[in-house]
Design a protein that fits this description.
two-stranded antiparallel sheet; 21 helices; elongated
Length: 384
């Protein structure tokens, strides 16, 4: 309605203008320095209209290449998006070769979204075409240099999936050198450590990763297991073990799993006295079964002292099957067969196992009680 009213008033104004121009043409005088131009008003208005049209034509001529280029790019982008969509469908169907060819046909025409480059990269990866894979990776990095970390994370995920652990580690290390707090990289590191053995260069990052605040409890526990595996593997290499142990944060050094590695390393290097001194303080704090078990393996000339320590612990925790087992084995090492039998029976009372019944059977044989030995060995058989 408003446009109709505006059009109506415009017609009236033009009509009035034409009416007055017919009655009196008027004139326009333009003077500049010593020059002057005089023209009737209708001619002057006509000249203005011609000048305006000329400027518009020149503007169109000037902008037409850019306009045509934009239109052409829009057409190419539409075609590229369509092909990308088709390629994604092919990839979801497992037809990676055809998908890669379709993506390659548009990759040189225009600048593509990052996900399109990564789709081509992914397709080439599943095709196991290393040259094509490298080509797509290079293209994505060239097109989006600021997204290098994002691209490398995608690369790492694919490498881990295909069990190329060394290559995955190389990419992850590159990411962490640039940003050692990259949470996504740290999470992938957890995945890597849970799937492969850890070498010296990897172990260097473990303590820092475990201490990283962004990792939840489950991920930290996985990493501690990985660190434990590494430490267990280098207990014979005192220099490497010590170097790694020094990098472990204080709050982690109290973990029973890691302490177990430490005491094994000590025992492997004949530091039994130092290990015993620490274990007698550590065991009452945790009552960890693995630490209790390693206490029995200490090579001490004074077995009586170890036995007395174990007896004190059983008095403190009389229902702990692991402590009774420790007392039994220490007594056996000291040739105290009757005591060993009594302690083993208490341990079996709280937690019977085939191994314990077999040990008790051997103790009975040492005591000359063959019938009792046969009986407990039958009990062991029933547990299997």
């Amino acid at each position: 309605m408003r446009s109709k009213i505006l059009f109506f008033f415009t017609i009236i104004i033009i009509g009035l203008g034409v009416h007055y121009l017919i009655e009196d043409n008027g004139y326009v005088l333009i003077e500049f320095l010593t020059y002057s131009v005089e023209a009737s008003l209708p001619v002057f208005l006509l000249l203005l209209i011609v000048l305006y049209l000329l400027v518009r034509v020149l503007s169109l001529i000037w902008s037409s290449p850019k306009y045509l280029k934009e239109r052409l790019n829009q057409k190419r982008e539409k075609k590229a998006n369509q092909k990308t969509h088709e390629a994604m469908i092919l990839m979801s169907q497992g037809n990676f070769s055809k998908a890669e060819r379709k993506l390659r046909s548009i990759s040189s025409e225009i600048s593509l979204p990052i996900d399109t480059y990564l789709a081509g990269f992914t397709a080439a990866h599943y095709m196991e075409e290393q040259e094509l894979r490298s080509d797509w990776l290079a293209k994505s990095l060239d097109a989006y240099p600021k997204l290098e970390s994002y691209i490398n994370l995608k690369n790492t995920k694919l490498l881990l999936e295909s069990e190329q652990y060394i290559e995955a580690w190389n990419v992850l290390e590159h990411i962490l050198i640039a940003d050692n707090k990259n949470t996504s990289a740290l999470r992938l590191m957890v995945d890597l450590f849970s799937k492969t053995s850890i070498d010296d260069s990897m172990a260097h990052y473990l303590p820092a990763i475990i201490s990283h605040g962004s990792l939840n409890k489950a991920l930290k526990e996985k990493l501690i297991v990985s660190l434990q595996k590494f430490l267990n593997g280098c207990t014979d290499n005192q220099e490497l073990f010590t170097k790694t142990w020094l990098t472990i944060p204080k709050e982690l050094k109290s973990q029973p799993e890691l302490l177990l590695c430490k005491y094994r390393s000590m025992m492997n290097h004949d530091e039994h006295a130092i290990a015993e001194k620490e274990l007698r303080k550590t065991i009452p704090k945790t009552w960890n079964s693995s630490l209790i078990e390693i206490y029995e393996l200490l090579n001490s000339p004074d077995l009586a002292t170890l036995s007395r320590r174990a007896d004190l612990w059983t008095e403190e925790r009389p229902r702990d099957a692991n402590l009774w087992l420790l007392s039994s084995r220490l007594a056996k090492r000291d040739g105290l067969w009757s005591k060993s039998k009594q302690c083993m029976e208490r341990s079996i009372e709280y937690l019977p196992t085939v191994e314990k019944y077999n040990e008790l059977g051997l103790i009975f044989l040492e005591l000359g009680q063959k019938e009792d030995a046969v009986e407990v060995l039958h009990k062991a058989k029933n547990l299997i």
